[in-house]
Amino acid sequence: MVRDIKHLVADLEDAILLGKSSSASEIQFSLQHRSPFWTGTFNRSWKVQKGSRVAATIPRGEFSGPKIPKKGEIIMTTLSEALYVGNQTDYAAFVINQKRSLADGMKYEDLFPDSKTTPIPNQPDWYDVYLKTALEGDLDEGFSQVGFSVRKSYG
After folding, report:
1. pLDDT (tens digit, 9 = 90+) per residue, 130-150?
2. Considering the entire predicted model, what is its pTM?
3. 90/23 Cα distance (integer angstroms)
4. Hey, where are the domains in the chain?
5. How far apart, in whole angstroms, are the C-alpha atoms of residue 100 and residue 56?
6. Quick one: three-class SS letters along the chain?
7. CA separation for the pair 80, 17 (Å, rounded)
């Protein structure tokens, strides 16, 4: 079906916003699979939210969400509105190997100063590894799900 070119900008905006929302859902789903799972609370507490950062307020063991990872809802935004993917557990910063707060300067890797062995996952920097190796693929997958073709022409 032929469409007048006057709709091009609006159509592109709609497609990009749908790709953005689909990618956020894909990232949330992927992080459920990649994040630590020994308590069950952390990996089930990933959330997509618009407008403000996800608040880290759920204590360990108090999550009542699904038992298996599932994709979150597609949340539509505007081009200027932020869309956040974050973890709701109160110890989320610690699990991604960041300082939990300025008062509590301990990081995940500090629990094991004499060895490289840590609980599953066996690397305290798992989140940095995700950001460097898998995030781009999750973005590509999200945009592909709404009809974009991924072509890489950069070095």
Report:
1. 899 999 999 999 999 999 998
2. 0.78
3. 25
4. 5-144
5. 10
6. CCCCHHHHHHHHHHHHHHHHHHHHHHHHHHHHHHCCCCCCCCCCCEEEEECCCCCCCECCCCCCCCCCCCCCCCCCCCCCCCEEEEECECCHHHHCCCCCCCCCCCCHHHHCCCCCCCCCCCCCCHHHHHHHHCHHHHHHHHHHCCCCCCCCCCC
7. 10
